[in-house]
Recover the amino acids of this structure.
């Protein structure tokens, strides 16, 4: 096990972001990918740091927790999923 790596569940617990959203961010290249694969897949600690920043920005912006586009934002503009 890598000392500076986290499981997807550890990332989720640390950041409050759902594992499926974390996987989506990795697939889109928003956060660093896997350090090791297979059943005990591990992610670099840097991924957790970036996810914490994303959560702080999301919470400060008032966007809903869902990464699904919606028309229900208080400003009534259509939201788009987070991309960098």
């Amino acid at each position: 096990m890598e000392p500076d790596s986290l499981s997807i569940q550890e990332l989720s617990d640390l950041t409050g972001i759902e594992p499926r959203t974390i996987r989506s961010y990795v697939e889109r290249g928003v956060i660093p990918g896997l350090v090791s694969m297979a059943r005990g897949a591990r992610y670099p600690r840097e991924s957790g740091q970036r996810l914490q920043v994303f959560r702080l920005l999301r919470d400060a912006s008032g966007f809903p927790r869902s990464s699904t586009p919606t028309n229900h934002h208080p400003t009534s503009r259509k939201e788009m999923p987070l991309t960098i």
